[in-house]
Design brief:
The chain contains ten helices and ten strands. With 308 residues, it is of the alpha/beta class. It folds into two domains: 126 residues, Rossmann fold; 148 residues, Alpha-Beta Plaits (2-Layer Sandwich). It has a five-stranded parallel β-sheet with strand order 2-1-3-4-5, with helices on both faces. It has a five-stranded mixed β-sheet with strand order 7-8-6-9-10, with helices on both faces. Helix 1 packs across helix 5, helix 2 packs parallel to helix 3 and helix 7 packs across helix 8. It starts with 8 loop residues before the first strand and ends in a 15-residue tail after the last strand. It binds magnesium ion (MG). The site of magnesium ion (MG) has 5 residues, from loops.
Length: 308
């Protein structure tokens, strides 16, 4: 199971001991951490204190059958995103249809080939992982979308407070973006966004967080980096973006940026973002195409405060 990024865990719910052990054996053999329960009630008890990635569940069981377990899982927020496969001897089309109406990932009929079952489990998990990843990305630039980026940055800020450290947040906005769209059309505007996203991606480390925050706005977070080290990085991004946009779009496009350092300039996302935005706006006021570190005396001339 070398192609798995991490060890997945599965819960096998089955009253027939032989089948249960067979499935557990094959899952463990494939690298999964496998747990077992003999019926729905036992499974629910186990799920009270253990999170699993996927549940493989028989339908006909004493005490609590598979349908009832499925409903119980669906009704609990912390379990709702768990993968779910029905494994049943009920193999009539109406049985399968009924099972699938419970919104499960797969309905597998007995008898089954254990290796095929493991392959199906794997397919379900990789499909779910791909969907979860896609839900975090902005479709155009493939950067974090606002919601996911904000969540990641908040997580970093919490870490900075727990293990005292520093980080830099950058608010970045493409200059004259409306003019780019008006002059060259919206497709060119989109290409400029994609180009900038590429520049940001290739100029950052894997630990940095790069987010398309909205329209032509981007928010970046550099962990373990102070303002003095962040500013030259952003200036390099600026030169690269201007060079590439001129080369590809025959139009030199720039951005304005504002920088704050945490915890020096704040330790809450909203405060840092607002201050970086103020500094960015100061860059705009002073001729654009520049990077401005936030200072307590920065005054923004009439720019309405954002409510992120
Ligand atoms: Mg059974």
């Amino acid at each position: 199971m070398s192609h798995m990024e991490r060890q997945y865990s599965a819960l096998v719910v089955e009253d027939d001991a032989h089948t249960r052990e067979l499935v557990v054996f094959n899952l463990e053999d494939a690298g999964y951490r496998a747990h077992a329960a003999a019926n729905g009630a036992e499974a629910l008890k186990l799920l009270e204190h253990r999170v699993v990635d996927i549940i493989i569940c028989d339908i006909m069981m004493p005490e609590m059958n598979g349908f009832a377990l499925r409903e119980a899982v669906q009704s609990q927020a912390k379990l709702r995103d768990t993968g779910f496969i029905f494994l049943s001897a009920k193999s009539l089309p109406e049985d399968e249809i009924r099972g699938l109406r419970y919104g499960v990932d797969e309905y597998i009929t007995k008898p089954f080939n254990p290796e095929v079952l493991v392959a199906r489990v794997e397919a379900v998990l990789s499909r779910r992982a791909a969907l979860a990843k896609a839900a975090q990305l902005d479709p155009l630039t493939q950067l974090f979308n606002r919601q996911a980026g904000e969540r990641e940055i908040r997580r970093e800020l919490e870490r900075i407070q727990r293990y005292p450290s520093i980080g830099t947040l950058v608010f970045l906005d493409i200059d004259e973006f409306k003019a780019v769209n008006d002059t060259l059309g919206h497709a060119a505007g989109d290409r400029a966004l994609v180009l900038l996203a590429e520049v940001l991606r290739e100029s950052t480390r894997s630990v940095d967080i790069v987010t398309r925050y909205g329209g032509e706005e981007f928010v970046l977070f550099f962990p373990q980096t102070d303002e003095a080290n962040a500013v030259p990085v952003i200036e390099r991004m600026q030169r690269r973006f201007q060079y590439l946009s001129e080369k590809h779009a025959q139009l030199r496009i720039s951005f304005s940026a504002g920088v704050v350092e945490a915890p020096r300039d704040g330790n809450q996302f909203d405060v840092l973002c607002r201050r970086a935005d103020e500094a960015m706006y100061s860059s705009k006021e002073h001729g654009k195409a520049r990077v401005t570190p936030w200072r307590p005396n920065i005054r923004h001339a009439g720019r309405p405060l954002r409510t992120p």
